[in-house]
Amino acid sequence: MTDSPILTITGLGKTFGDSIAVADLNLEVGSGEMLALLGPSGCGKTTTLRMIAGLERPTAGEITFSGRKISSSTESIFVPPDQRNFGMVFQSYALWPHMTVEQNIAYPLKLRRTAKADILSRVEATIALMGLTPFARRTVNTLSGGQQQRAALARALVYSPAVVLFDEPFSNLDTQLRAQMRAELKTLQKNVHLTGVFVTHDQIEALSLADRIAIMNAGQVEQIGTPEDVYDRPVSRFVYDFLGKSITFAGVVSGVDANGEVRIVAGEGGETHVRARQESQTSVHAGAPVAVSVRPGYVRVYPDGATEAQAQDNAIPAVIEQLLYVGDRYEARVLIGSSSTLLELPRAGHWQDGQRVLLAFDKARTSIWPAPT
Amino acid sequence: MLVLITAIGFLVLYPIGSVLVNGLIPGAGTGGRSVAAVWQTAFAQPGLERSILNTLAVVALTEAIAFPLATLIAWVLARTDVPGSSWLEFGFWLIFFLPALGTTTGWLILFDPNYGLANKLVTDLHLFATPPFNMYSYGGIVFAHISTYSVAVLVMLLTPAFRNLDGSIEEAARVCGAGSLRALWNIVLPLVAPALAVAFLMSIMRSLESFEIELFLGLPAQFSVYSTKIYQLLRGDPPDYASATVLATLVLLVVIPLIVLQRWISTRRSYATIGSHYRHTVRPLGRWRPIVFGVLLVTVTGMSLLPLGLQLVGSFMTLFGFFGLASVWTTAHWSAAFSDPRLVSSLTNSLLLGTGTAVGAVVVYTIVAYCTVRLRGPLGSILDTMTWLPLTLPGIILGFGFLRMVLQVPIFSPFYGSLGILMLICWVTSITLGVQVLKANMLQISPELEEAARIVGAPRSRTFRDIVIPLALPAIVVVGVMVFSQTLRQVSTIVLLSTGNTTPLSLLQLEYLSAGMLGPASVCGTLIVLMSVIAAAIVRVVTLRSRFRLR
User: Fold this and answer.
1) CB-based contacts of A323-326 (< 8 A; 24+ apart in sequence)
2) Cα within 13 Å of Cα(B203), Cβ side
3) Which residues of B483-506 are buried (b: 16+ CB within 10 A; e: fewer)?
4) Type and span of the H or E element at B429
5) 3-class DSSP assignment, residue B513
6) What are the CA-CA distances from residue B224 to residues B57, B108, B221, B253 (Å)?
7) Of residues B362 and B37, more confidently modeled
8) Which helix (H) or strand (E) holds B14?
9) What is the CA radius of gyration of chain B?
10) Which of A66, B179, B507, B528 lies 20 to 30 A from B48 at CA?
11) Which of A52, A83, A95, A98 to mutate to test the interface with B (most CBs of B within 10 A)?
């Protein structure tokens, strides 16, 4: 994030009757930055986006844009959406069915009383940028999902709004098209210096597109940081679990070193020692039951007794309970001590049901959390 | 916004309030007498009690026949594979909008006690010694009710309710071993019971609204219902306002609980009918399919094209309904009509009234419908409820209330009897259907389409103009035509408010009918139908063309 944020949100709250959608939310968005609001459905991310857009009136807090308050519940300031000069790409695209692609994209410029010649050239340029030139005169209902998505993006960009808001922009596209649009948006963002906030429940979308990710849960931000930050250094179990798969097993703390390193006994009969860094804010002490987690990408699997496994920080024995062949790899259910967990195994290698293996991983990649009660 | 609610609230509530207040509270309207005394005097009026009993008798017999019939028709249309079911359903919509006076006039050619063709047929065949059919009777009035709108309104309300029923619920009952009829009785009927109840109440309220049929057919038979009684009391010399108020109050005291009950059931009925895994199943009729289709087709045309056609035929007859004369056919009624300054001025009045009401209605209804759809909080539902009231209020009472309003409220008094006042009441009368149609359409417009416009910089008013109106335009046009044709056939609401030089065609038709001048009356009736058809056709052509241009 740059030093001076362009959009500042402080203490933002929204209640619908008795239910709290967003509570005491604080965020900053830098100029040219892409911020993702990531969270499960019902976490308040869409409500937050709609409050930024001016489509919902906050019940608490302030939103400041470029040093000017555009929303403040205490001062009764509420700039309506049409005066904020933001852009938005809706989940449903919200293209106007009674207009052609061209008319849809020209409408924001018409509202701004742009000169006719200017409108024509800018619309044409934006349509070309989005690869929509052959469809310019078509009504939007005749476009495919991907084309509609581009048209919606074109309409949001044509008037160079200060901030573009995206509400689950790719959720209506199929997997392939989604990957393609992600790449296109990333390129576009770099080329046009786009400041954006986007809402998604798809972690891959957030990790790949955002400069920073705010992970939301129950109306609040759990953690905010760069994708690497939140992925590798989650501050809570919720963030850790939400951001991808993990291999988790139970253990008991046997000691805490002076440098913060934690020693845990785990595995069959509690015979294996595992070292980890302390992740959660709650301090652990010897004898405390914990959950040990590691991202699957950091785990190497060796046949039982492989010497190179012993060279790693941590190596814990496990048993393949069940092996599923899924084409380019295996999906295995493995038992670590009494904890059962899912793991992907490479095609190369001779795996079989009941085989004993060693899972090896770095202590720096190992997280511990208080055991779920 | 508040201005709108207040204005509509005033126009809808004042007339009702004025009747009720004067009927129940002693004051200016009662000339210093106690309420009890006024009610006593009113009931001393000859025929007043009789008229109430007659009203009940008409409603009871009409419903006893129309309700089972319409339920069956609606079920067949919604749940079987009868061909052209959506067209047949549309046919019932048309029947509902046909002018009752016109169709009733048409029926006279068949069922007049003296010269009716049906009577002639059965006596010539020696099936009956004396002519059995008589339109000018209790039975005739009930027949007119059933064929003009009773069945139609029920089919309109029940068909969607039956259609929305999740088919798998019925199938589950069949799978469990219930027979077809048993499934209908045990599963389907309880599920649609709330919808049936709402439709039933609605239909009773429509029956209570009836006026012109009774006035035209009942007068010769000395058969009066409450609405014609009110009319007679007010048109008497001197007019008996006090008794009319008492009678109107009495009816309101019956109707208002019905309205409340109907609203109450319809707001809590959503529980059963529509499932999320909605499945629409139709029952194959097998070899009965052509027969069922034939019966329905005959019913629909028999209620619409046949009587209107007969009316048209009658307008070209030397003596209405007499086929045995030396010269049966003549264009005299038509040529006489167009040289009659009264008809020409009525025609002009009708056109002005219809167009003015339609234009005003379209503008205001669109705004009102939009507000009820988009307004959060209680204001929206208050507005919604107020737009519901006029449909459920008997026209003669609304007209009476309006008459009181015009006479009592200083800003309206100078306009007594003017076309403007007639427009205002026609506009209130049509508000329910108009707003409902627009509302249904606007609910289809995703709020995101408007939000998208707001975001790109369009203020609220501009969003309404550039996004909402163009998207709702087809429905707006339909409502315009609907209001136009509804205004043309309006009788009961305006009969008390119209004066000599603002008489529209429908009232002139009533006048001719009351005077037994059936030929000129058929000319008026045919003109009303023609104007509606032409309006619909023009609009259809215009919208088709503009849609073409959009592409």
Assistant:
1) A323/A351, A323/A352, A323/A353
2) 33
3) bbbbbbbbbbbbbbbbeeebbbbb
4) helix B419-429
5) helix
6) 11, 19, 9, 20
7) B362
8) helix B2-24
9) 25
10) B507
11) A98
Residue B546: its pLDDT value, please? Answer: 58
Of all helices (H) and strands (E), which one includes residue B235?
helix B226-235
- CB of B306 closer than 8 Å to CB of B95: no
- For chain A, which residues make up each domain, given as ranges? 5-242, 247-370
Cα Rg of chain A, angstroms: 25
Torsion, Cα of A132, A138, A144, A146 (10° steps)? 30
Residue A285: per-residue pLDDT:
79
**Phi, psi of B454, rounded to the nearest 5 degrees:** -60, -45
Q: Is A159 on the interface with B (CB under 8 A)?
A: yes
Closest chain B residue to A52, measured at CA = B455
Which 109-128 residues of chain A touch chain B by CB within 8 A? 111-112
- Name the closest residue on chain A to residue B546, using Cα atoms: A98
Burial class (CB in 10 A: 0-12, 13-18, 19+), A198: buried
Testing the interface with A: which of B456, B461, B468 to mutate, by most A Cβ within 10 A? B456
CA–CA dist B263, A158 (Å, integer): 49
Looking at every residue in chain B, the average pLDDT score rounds to 85
Domains in chain B, ordered, with CATH?
1-24+331-551 (1.10.3720.10), 45-330 (1.10.3720.10)
Of B434, B510, B518, the C-alpha closest to B475 is: B434
Task: Find all residues with CB under 8 Å of B271, minimum gap 6, and list them.
Answer: none
From A22, A16, A79, select the one nearest A214 (Cα to Cα). Answer: A22
- CA of A327: how far to CAs of A303, A322, A324, B18, B196, in Å? 21, 16, 9, 81, 58
| CATH code assigned to A5-242 | 3.40.50.300
List of residues 6+ apart from B227 with CB closer than 8 A: B55, B208, B209, B210, B211, B214, B215, B394, B395, B396, B492
Q: Which CATH class is domain A247-370?
A: mainly beta
SS (H, E, C) A252-302: EEEEECCCCEEEEEECHHHCEEEEEEECCCCCCCCCCEEEEEECHHHCEEE
Average pLDDT on B153-162 reads: 87
pLDDT at position B522: 92
Nearest one of A130, A126, A51, A50 to A90, comparing CA atoms: A50
Q: Find the distance separating the first CA and the last CA of chain B, reported in whole Å.
A: 36
